[in-house]
Prior knowledge:
The chain has one domain: Serine Threonine Protein Phosphatase 5, Tetratricopeptide repeat (Alpha Horseshoe). Helix content is about 80%, strand content about 0%. It is built from five helices and no strands. The protein starts with a helix and ends with a helix. The mean pLDDT is about 95.
Amino acid sequence: MVTDVRAMQGMLMLNRGQVRDARARLQECLAFWSAQKHPRWVALCELQLGLIEERAENRAASLASSGRSRRRYVQVNARVQAAAVAQHQQRVEAMRP
């Protein structure tokens, strides 16, 4: 649960415009969930990192992270989440390169 709260803090940082801090916080959470081998939480962290990179106008990194997220959601048969990530990817793809 501590890691969940830390991820939420990271997203709050993003909302405050603290992109670097948000990225660092979510990378910590991703490392934790990866070590725990928890695919749904890894997928969520990857999506959140994709949102951070979108805010930073880093199109390639956002697409890469969200692509990993979508693949993980598909692997665990989380269709609704995979579809939501696909919408995010479409929005990012529409950004200027």
